[in-house]
Amino acid sequence: MEKQSLIKVLTAAGVGSRRKMSEAIKLGRVMVNGEAVTDFNHPVDMAKDKISIDGREVSTQSQKLIYIMMNKPVNTVSTVSDELGRRTVLDLLPQKYRQYRLYPVGRLDKDSTGLILLTNDGELANRLTHPRFENEKEYSVSTNVPMKAAEMRRMEKGIMLEDGMTYPAIVKRLKGGDYSITIHEGRKHQVRRMFEAMGYTVKSLKRIRMGNLQLGSLAAGRVRELRQDEVDGLISQYK
Ligand code: URA
Fold it and tell me: Which of 108, 184, 200, 204, when mutated, tests ligand 1's pocket best, judged by the most ligand atoms within 8 Å of its CB?
């Protein structure tokens, strides 16, 4: 069988995101046939070579690809494990999905709610989180006081945060007084920081859309598998 790079094989095996796998390789946690390998491009033969991370063997046999949307509730971290023992999105997964090595694509703050995608499709996860693909994300935000129209327009044009200017966004007032903001970036706490930079406090933040995926009426803490047209839509958007 043709050899492939270690990073490619690990990402395709659905053990974790490309970023996590790169970190593991860099730190010498990945072994190929019992030897630590720190070269991402180390050639491996999926049929013959034995790969392990932290001593646990990685199955490179193809596993069924699963795509799930969750409405993350508050007080839940969007990581696979948490050193402080807080509840993770994986803790909320129904039993039948626990046999798959699903992991969340992108992050939502502990106190944010809404749409988070969980999958074992490493390649898709990698594409969706890559800045080049400009994955559109829409949030519904409630603020302490109503926003001034001029501030909304400033936010749309781009504002200066400590890590640089934000790209153009779309900001709308929703019925009921909340705001919708659509951004293409995924900087840490970005939406909260944008509102704070304009002098507002974010009371609640919910992701309602990621590209073609709409959260809809999915209840907090619940999951549903994506329909085939949604999976196709995601894949075609990021090809
Ligand atoms: N921006 C934030 O500030 N928090 C989130 O959870 C998502 C986007």
Answer: 108
Which residue carries 């693909």 as its tokens?
Answer: 133
For residue range 190-231, list pLDDT tens digits in order.
999 999 999 999 999 999 999 999 999 999 999 999 999 999
Please check whether the two domains, 4-58 and 136-210, share a CATH topology: no
CATH homologous superfamily, domain 4-58? RNA-binding S4 domain (3.10.290.10)
> What predicted TM-score, i.e. pTM, was given to this entire model?
0.78
Tokens, residue 173:
């007032």
Instruction: With a cut of 50, list the residues of the chain below it in pLDDT.
Output: none
Distance CA 207, CA 112 (A): 8
109 as an active site residue: the answer is yes
Of 49, 82, 109, 178, catalytic? 109
Q: Is 82 in the pocket of ligand 1 (CB under 6 A)?
A: no
CA-based nearest residue to 124, from 67, 168, 173, 46: 67
Cβ of 70 closer than 6 Å to ligand 1, yes or no, is no
